[in-house]
Amino acid sequence: MLHTPSGGAGHGIAAAETGLMSIGTVLNVLREEFPEVTISKIRFLESEGLIEPRRAPSGYRKFSAEDVERLGHVLRMQRDHYLPLKVIREHLDAMERGEAVPLPVLSRQRDGEAGPEPVADRLATVARIGRAQLLAASGVDQRQLAEWESYGLLAPVEDEVYDAEAVTVAGLITELGRFGIEPRHLRAMKAAADREAGLVDQVVAPLKRHRNPQTRAHAQARTKELAGLTAKLHAALVSSALGVRLP
User: Fold this and answer.
1) For the segment 171-227, what is each residue's pLDDT rounded down to a tens digit?
2) What is the pLDDT of residues 71-123, one digit of tens each?
3) Rounded CA gap, 100 and 78, in Å?
């Protein structure tokens, strides 16, 4: 069995009722540590073979505490180590076989010495998914996805291939739709996000262009830190404008 650090999703699992959980309960447990996780993201990770929940006779997914624990590991390794799903799957499978497999770390080299490119440089690229996978994970059809693309909310990085984060975006667009917020209403949010991303990229651009691979790897961590701060500021500004306190 995998073991999570104290707090976060591990704490939520301990607090959850004994036995199998619905996907909604799993979502609430995981959101203690991963506020941005969605049902679509959980379904996508299942489609990628990261978890295998049981199925009730009615067809509904039923998750064990071990399933949720594994999900927490997957989300943590994506968030903290930028690892592709293939690497995460191999790492967790090795752990379940009882093998002591360390996570990939940055290689070290002395000044003036040639050395291999840091693992983080090779693995920091965001995982990709195909159009069919995105449609299946988000539960939408071709027409809806085409509409989202027409408003710039989603865009393939190459022919019918998307950034895996598109699953999260699709899930959030769907959830907002339940409140009557249509894709055309979200264009301003996309424009604001692009401006924020441009500001972050401007700050880290000198690090990304540096010849030292260690410095380029540091740019990934700096980008993540700045992205988190801008997201928090954005949420705080929206909260202040509405006169409400967000959880």
Assistant:
1) 889 889 889 999 999 999 989 888 998 888 888 888 777 777 777 778 888 888 888
2) 998 888 888 776 777 778 888 888 888 776 666 543 333 333 444 344 333 33
3) 20
Helix (H, G, I), strand (E, B) or coil at 142: helix
The Cα 86–Cα 37 span in angstroms is 19
Q: How many residues does the chain have?
A: 247
For the segment 137-143, the average pLDDT, to the nearest whole number, is 85
Distance from C-alpha of 47 to C-alpha of 137, rounded to nearest angstrom: 7
Pairing of strands 128-130, 61-62: unpaired
CB 155 within 8 A of CB 192: no
Cβ atoms of residues 30 and 12 within 8 Å: yes
Question: Each residue of 101-111: b (16+ CB within 10 Å) or e?
Answer: eeebeeeeeee
Helix ranges restricted to H, the chain? 8-15, 23-30, 39-47, 65-81, 85-96, 119-123, 131-138, 142-150, 166-177, 187-208, 213-242
- Cα separations (Å) of 113 from 120, 176, 180, 210? 19, 53, 59, 16
pLDDT category at 149 given cuts 50, 70, 90 is very high
- Structural domains for the chain: 8-96 (1.10.1660.10), 126-181 (1.10.1660.10), 184-247 (no CATH)
Q: pLDDT at position 152, please?
A: 92
> pLDDT tens digits for 63-83?
999 999 999 988 888 887 767
